[in-house]
Amino acid sequence: MPTFRFAPSPNGRLHLGHAFSALLNARLAARFGGRLLLRIEDIDPGRSRPDLIAAVIDDLAWLGLRFDGPVRRQSEQMDAYRANLESLAARGLAYPCFCSRSEVAAAANRAEAIRRDPDGAPLYPGTCRHLTEGAVAGRLARGEPHTWRLAMDRALATAPGPHRFTAFDTQGPEHLAPADPARWGDTVIARRDVPTSYHLAVVTDDATQDVSHVVRGADLLAATDLHVLLQALLGLASPRYHHHSLLLDATGAKLAKSRGSQSLADLRAQGTEPQALRASLGFS
Predict the structure, then answer these.
(1) What is the dihedral of CA 265, 268, 274, 275, to 10 degrees?
(2) 11, 7, 16, 22: which is closest to 51 by C-alpha?
(3) Which residues, 6+ apart, have CB-to-CB distance to 73 below 8 Å?
(4) Quick one: which of 94, 187, 205, 284 is 20 to 30 A from 65 by CA?
(5) Domain residue ranges of the chain, discontinuous segments joined by +
(6) Cis preceding linkage at 10, omega within 30
């Protein structure tokens, strides 16, 4: 059965962009005769507060959305993420990195030309790739804080591609789209505080939940390149993808919780009815 999912991060209140994405997922799930799942992407222990999780669920219910099956919370899936991380590390495809963000930025600034990943962050210069096994073991034994990075060259040698993913539009036709995971470099796949990152968690969850269609914003199009590679390395099925246009504010910037975009809670407090909001976004 076709399976879709809406997967917000509870680090703030939902805004109109979230509402549009959730409603589009619901429309397409109904059109394809499939299921719609709700996943709470709460791997950030410092920002994913219980009250915000409850608010997300309440806002979606207010919109009139109904989801199939239990709500999946990423904070409860750490064993699955750790298992996939350990699988990559055991094959030499991931390595621990003891560099701080400031150290990575400083190393990038010393380079003749700063190369950046699709999110705009400096590409990792590979400092910790060259540590000896003994040095790594000693630093791990001392409990030094570290992330885990994907060894991109080894990953591409293991899964050389060509890398592609199946893209579909809202009417259903599909086509193969090229993917270029190399532009992410040795990206972080597990944070200091949890054994995963957004990228590793999302491919693990999509496979575990048998998600067949991923509908998300165009700002995550580049991430799909990396997700396709992780799926190949871990032997996971790759869903079909649709990346919808983003809602923009009056300045032309995308709506974002970090920018203080008007939330659904604000609109509800002003007396907006859910039917009117749905209609304003093109959903009757």
Answers:
(1) -140
(2) 11
(3) 39, 40, 42, 53
(4) 205
(5) 1-75+248-284, 77-209
(6) no
Amino acid at residue number 84: N
Of 103, 99, 128, 124, the closest CA to residue 114 belongs to: 124
Distance CA 70, CA 91 (A): 34
Q: Is the Cα dihedral 202, 223, 32, 283 positive or negative?
A: positive
pLDDT in tens, 69-125: 999 999 999 999 999 999 999 999 999 999 998 888 887 777 656 789 999 999 999
Q: Does the predicted TM-score (pTM) go above 0.70? A: yes
- Report whether CATH 3.40.50.970 matches the domain 1-75+248-284: no
The CATH class of 77-209 is alpha beta
pLDDT higher than threshold 70 for residue 258: no
- Whether pLDDT at 243 is above 70: yes
Main-chain dihedrals φ then ψ at residue 138, nearest 5 degrees: -65, -40
Would you state the structure tokens that stand for residue 24, as one six-digit string? 């589009």
Q: How many residues does the chain have?
A: 284
